[in-house]
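Reopening this ticket.

The earlier resolution said the output was attached, but the attachment link was broken on my side. Pasting everything inline this time so it's all in one place.
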Amino acid sequence: MTSGAILDVARDGIVVFLKAGGPLMMVALIVGLAVSLVQALTQIQEQTLIYVPKIIAVFAALMLFLPFMGDALAGYMGRVALRIATGE
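Inline output:
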């Protein structure tokens, strides 16, 4: 396996990682920002208030994006297995 092929696999892995984890991270970021904004506007300074809405939103997003994430990971595994089988 050449260094170019290794870089291709690594680059593809990073892209798949961003495709699989990105939507959940964006949902957590948006919900966290919204809850923080509500806390700042209402002057509620409860530190644990942010966790429940964020957990619920991330689990809902996980159920929504799970087929897409599974397809991205399965496609990556198929490409890696093909490279292993062909000896590239």
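Reporter confirms the inline version is readable. The CA atoms of residues 78 and 84 lie 10 Å apart. The mean pLDDT is 91.
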